[in-house]
Amino acid sequence: MSKALIDLIRQKFPADVLESHSQRGDDTVVVYAPRWKDIARFLRDDPRADMSMLTDLTAVDFPDRTPRFEVVVHLYSLSKGHRLRLKARVGDAAGTNAEIDTVCDLWASANWAERECWDMFGVRFKGHPDLRRILLYPEFEGHPLRRDYPADRIQPLVPYLDVPNTQKLPPFGPDEGMPFGRQTFQQGPSTDDDDVN
Amino acid sequence: MGALKEGSPDILTSGAGEGFVTTQFNSLLAWAQKYSLFMYPFVTACCGMEFMSVSSPRYDFSRFGSEAPRFSPRQSDLLWVVGTIVQRQAPVLRRIYEQLAEPKWVLAFGTCASCGGFYDNYATVAGIDKIIPCDIYVPGCPPRPEAVLDGLMLLQDKIQRGDRRPAIVKPRADPAQDQSLGLVQLRRSGSSRTPV
Predict the structure, then answer these.
(1) Which of A137, A139, A157, A163 has the most B C-beta neighbours within 10 Å, making it the best mutation to test the interface with B?
(2) With DSSP H G I counted as helix, E B as strand and the rest as coil, what are the percentages for chain B, rounded to 5?
(3) pTM for this predicted structure
(4) Which of A 99-138 lie inside 8 A of B, CB atoms?
(5) Looking at residue B33, which CATH number applies to its domain?
(6) Interface pTM (ipTM) of the complex?
């Protein structure tokens, strides 16, 4: 269908596209991980792609492959109506050095998705403003959606989190939970967009 | 233990004349306690829908003196744990239990609160009795309102008898063995017709 999108990326970044397919109209591009942010930025800003929305960001664990994790981003163009799945492979066999550039300064919706991806898979996002666990608690050891996390492991119960000198009600810490009223997410437009167009 | 007794022991003895009865103080206290349970619903998951059903007029457990929900644990003595408890919530539930007014009872509503249910994973606590003592277990996913009412009556029976051992609500009858349902005859006869 929109094979043109894959051709556009292949034309713009010929050395960075590892593979691509378009099975049943699902356009998928696997790109070179250190360059994936440039490609994502190009996809957001180029008028032919115009990927204005990040639908989802997650990871897949393939323990028998050498770049172990596949970070997957689903993009959608609200104006053009087309979708693209962007993948990048990171991490060694032990999964300790799984690291990739953040895209949450391109799409703000990637912020919590990257935190969840770090929480569940242990993929570190370079440049993320606040890379903490989002669903699990700080005392949790390991990353439970990794394939080598033992399925029957039960972690010890945590004590009650009572942080003094905070305006939040317990059990929330000073940087957790919603404060009363709305807060503005401090995020300006990124400044170095001109090098792509 | 475990099964609903045929009724509590007779606690009242009529006096010879009219206008007074004699009883034991503990029996009278227990009788008052079991019909004035102030509940604190700790509702975390889908069992909450069934809890709403059992507390609304069709099933109506206010018939059993357990009418008033108090959304502060300091004003209640029966903690309903309704739904899945995850590891991160465990200290919160513990704190809620510690804040309940004495004497206090805990009812585990549904399979997840009783034993973790099918959530055999990294996040879920396998039953609230890992955290707090539990008096009544009501299994079911979610439990039928009749099972919840059985659990409440079982708790009242235990309060009356002063029995603090944990108990589980058992099914009243095995549906496969219930002759009145006709399932057994249906299977034996091999007929698709409804037995009379």
Answers:
(1) A157
(2) 35, 15, 50
(3) 0.76
(4) 136-137
(5) 3.40.50.12280
(6) 0.71
